[in-house]
Each structure stands twice: as C-alpha cells, then as structure tokens.
C-alpha cells in the first residue's frame, strides 16, 4: 500500500485500509469461499503477515478444518500448508482449537516454543514464528477461525486483536445474511405457487420457476414485457381497480383473474399481494385455480339442469361466482404498481 505522496502509510492507515478491503470483499462476493482469499490477502499484505488460513467448523465431525490458505508471492510454506490441510483440530487443540474453545482472539509470540501447537516442528523447518488467530463469530457462536503467521517473533498487539475481532464479527454477519438469502431462494424456487416481485414500472423483477410450469413462458420472456399484456381483456378493468387499491395501501385481499399461456389458452390465478412504495415494488403470490373454476362451472351447470334455475356457488374464499360476478385481477393498468 502506497500513498500518492510516496509516504509509507501509518499503522492506523493500514488498519483502516484492512477494514475497507474486508468490507469490500464481503460486499462483492456471494460466499465466504469466494471472499476468503481476498480477506486473507488484505490482512497479510496490509498488516505485515506472511501466511494466512481460514478454518471452518465441520458440524458432522465437530472439528475445525482448513478451508483456504494464502501467502505472499515471494514466500512459500508448502510443508506447513499441507500439514494444515490434512489436520482437523478439536476444541482447545492448537491455535485454531484454542480460539474455538474460548471464542476469543489469541496471539503466540513464537509457535516453535508453544506447548500447544501441534504443527510446531513443521513451522520451525519453514521458519514461521509469530501467530495470531481470531474467531468468526455470530451471536457468540464460533463459525470459523482466521489465523496468520510471520517469520518474525512478534509480541502481542491488543489494538490489532480488537480490530480483527471486529472484522470476525462482520464476517459472521455476512455468513448469516448469505444463509438467510439461500434459505429464501430455496423457498422461492421450490414453491408450487407462483411467486413474484414486480416493479411500479409495470414489469416483473423476479419470478420463480413455477411460472414456466403454469404458463409455458421462459422467465426471461415474462420479465421482458409488461405483465398487464398477459391479463385476459375481460379482467383488465378489475385488475386496474385492484392495482389502485394496492397503490393506496389498502389491506391486501384475495382476487382472481386470467393470465394468457404461451399456447394461447388462459389459466385462472388467485392472488394475494402487498406493495412497498418506498421500494417501488409489489410482492405477490398467485395460485393456479383453473381446475377449481372448471369444477364450479360444472356444479353450476348441474344446478341449472336439475332446477331450471341458475344457482350461485360460493368459492372457498367466500366470493360469489356466476357469469356476472366481478372478478378482481393481477397486472394492473399500464404503469400500475401491481401485477395483480
């Protein structure tokens, strides 16, 4: 790291740059596996360490295993790296294990002389001495360990340990956020209902694969056109009305309309949706009720044939259904905020 003036950055500046580089890696990467090399490199290069490693908890065996390592381009510690990769630490054993057990950072001035460092012999052969480790924490639970090594003997730096502990907590929050996003993605993808996020500009922003199964379009075909184009012409007026209600922030209700399939047929969809004006989006879920509507039509026809008088059958949602009943629908007016 060099400043425009050519001046060597101060310790405070290098620590600030480390925090920034770590935050940038977490913002730009989708997983810890992807972010780890950048974080290890930033800490090594900016803070003067020559070898770094990430250890994660293997929940199946309740052991720590080495997930990734990094070293500078001018140094190499092949024996130490190989020894780390083939070792699984229990709580309290070695530098990773003691950090895991205490959930606190640890500093070893010289690992060669440390009585609880199983890799000491390899470290001695390859010239590694000082080491520090800090936990990746989430709500007090250790998710992993980051450890770093130097060829020099270095005394503990409490300020550095505190800064790295903060970085460990930030990484923990990143892991939690990514796990929550993965769970949401699985729920979104695997649902048999039609999930969507639609923008106030009249286009779908995100759809789950069920849309393809029900309507026959590929997802990129659906997001490339205004969703209002797919609504049955007879349902558009009620769709506009419902969209205006959603725009005004009225409580979401169930309503129904027909969407055109790729083969030209129509499917009945029952919708529930709510808008978030601050985000300019509508979150909605629809269910294909085409078969139910066909059953209701058959029952109505049976009623006519038996009594000679049309009957009004009530759906499970409590709405009356007959040829003249108003149907509420999804994709609203062009430019409307709601796809329902």
Walk me through the structure:
The protein contains ten helices and 13 strands. The protein has helices at residues 11-28, 32-47, 78-85, 94-102, 120-126, 158-190, 210-215, 219-223, 236-247, 290-307, and strands at 51-58, 63-71, 88-89, 106-108, 131-138, 141-149, 194-199, 204-207, 255-260, 266-276, 281-288, 313-314, 320-321. Strands 3-2-1-6-5-4 form a six-stranded antiparallel sheet. A five-stranded antiparallel sheet has the order 8-7-11-10-9. A hairpin with a 5-residue loop joins β12 (313-314) and β13 (320-321). α1 runs antiparallel to α2 (32-47) and α1 (11-28) runs parallel beside α6 (158-190). The model is unreliable at 311-335 (pLDDT under 50).
Task: Kindly summarize this structure in a few lines.
The chain is of the alpha+beta class and 340 residues long. The chain is 39% helix and 23% strand. It folds into two domains: 11-187, GAF domain (Beta-Lactamase), CATH 3.30.450.40; 191-321, Beta-Lactamase.
